[in-house]
Amino acid sequence: MVLSELQNSFGHDQFRGIQREVIDRVLAGRHALVIMPTGGGKSLCYQLPAVVLHRQKTAEQKTSNAKSRPPLTLVLSPLIALMKDQVDALQAKGIEATFVNSSLTREQRQQRYKALRDGRYAILYVTPERFRKAEFRELISQREIVLLAVDEAHCISQWGHDFRPDYTCVGEFRSWIGDPPTIALTATATREVQTDICQQLRLGALDRSPQAACQLFHTGIARPNLSLLVEDVWDHDAKLDLICREVDEWKSSNTGGSGIVYFTLIRTLEEFSQQLRKRGVHHMAYHGDLPRNLRRRTQEEFMESSDVVVLATNAFGMGVDKEDIRFVLHAEVPSSIESYYQEIGRAGRDGEPARCVLLYDQNDLMTQMEFIRWSNPDADFYQRTYDLITTDIDSVRAFGYEWLHEKLCHKQRHDRRLTTVLSMMERYGVIDNGESPIDSDENSDWSGLNIMGQLPEPLQSRANLAAKLERDQKKLLGLVQYVQSEDRVAFLEEYFG
């Protein structure tokens, strides 16, 4: 049945690598942690079992004539942009799948809730934050969760590079929905993070042995088709010349496909965009200050086009599953090995050769150190923010982010600590703005903002916050060590265990 489902539903004649082993493990009702490079086929490891389990459970329920809850696979993911793409792809294959997240209108959300109550859908994608909603918890209690898939599982670990507090509640969610078989998936996880993922999810001991409570499937991180290159640069002009050279070499190679040039700062991206246009280098641009509809249109055009280059911040790529990206160039130093590896992972997914070029300018390290400072506010700043919101909630609701920023940061326009604090307070359930995310967009509606609780211990502990700051600084140091290493593939293998 598994092979026929692979052919009939997914259009593949055979499995890749360890996919069959993982799928057999999950269908046997056992837990798995899958570490596989971007583009390696992680999604099939839970999508195919979801279809098989849905068919099996539905058939069993019809045969028994017993009144049972309809089966459902629940997929937890932080990537809203990717949910729609994956659901669209599944629906195109005739698989009943849907998502519920903050991108939906209230009417759309209620329609999907009704369909879920009626027993529709085999697969549901949600963010962990959705479990905060009482209406959603009541809805899910009416379905039998036959499989829980936790995508981007590194987000659950405080030692990971993209820690999300809501993920730390997933172990509790598992218990609440009946401790279903669980598969956790990520492209990057150090040994420390691997262990933490299983502990946080309450999956039991982790090992490569099939007898382990949670079996580790680790394909390694090496991708032989990627050329890992570092170019030392000393100024803006040298970077510009190297970007132009990379684009020229790609075009002259006649390999087709596309390219991504990553930047850390929006203003630097825009400066380079202007200079490249003057040199006749055609390209698109993508960053967080662009209107949402333009970002979406740019991403869609990139996906549909060949022979195209995009200049982008690291937000670009979360929803991109394009096989023929021939080069990924970092024009500025990224914040960590984890971030760097995820971004170069978008290159060469078709298995054909691709170049990954890092332009290393020591001056960029100062920018990343500033970002680390903004991402790690101290306990005093958390408390000041909380006190201001609680004592003058009406002003906050009326004037939003800009008012708060002026009160807390005064004339330091570029200080982004407040953005971090609000994000963490929202993720820990301290504040809530209904279905509208709390962000720094001047058009954001904060009228429904409410205080839901006290600051949690992790946001008050000076020792905890100092330890996180030190971890982030070490991650940047790891990037420097990668640049200086003689064997970069070996360095990555050792780093990720």
Please tell me about this protein's structure.
The chain has 497 residues and is α/β, with parallel strands linked by helices. The chain folds into 3 domains: 217 residues, P-loop containing nucleotide triphosphate hydrolases (Rossmann fold, 3-Layer(aba) Sandwich), CATH 3.40.50; 158 residues, Rossmann fold; 88 residues. It is 45% helix and 15% strand. The protein is built from 18 helices and 16 strands. An 8-stranded parallel sheet has the order 3-4-2-5-6-1-8-7. The longest helix is centred in the C-terminal third of the chain and has 23 residues. It is globular, with a radius of gyration of 23 Å.
Mean pLDDT: 89
Strand order of the largest sheet: 3-4-2-5-6-1-8-7
Overall number of strands: 16
User: What is Rg?
Assistant: 23 Å
Q: Classify the fold: give the CATH topology of the largest domain.
A: Rossmann fold
Distance between the termini: 35 Å
The CATH superfamily of the largest domain appears as P-loop containing nucleotide triphosphate hydrolases
Judged by helices, strands and strand pairing, the structural class is alpha/beta
Helix count from the secondary structure assignment: 18
What would you say the CATH architecture of the largest domain is? Answer: 3-Layer(aba) Sandwich
List the domain count as a whole number: 3
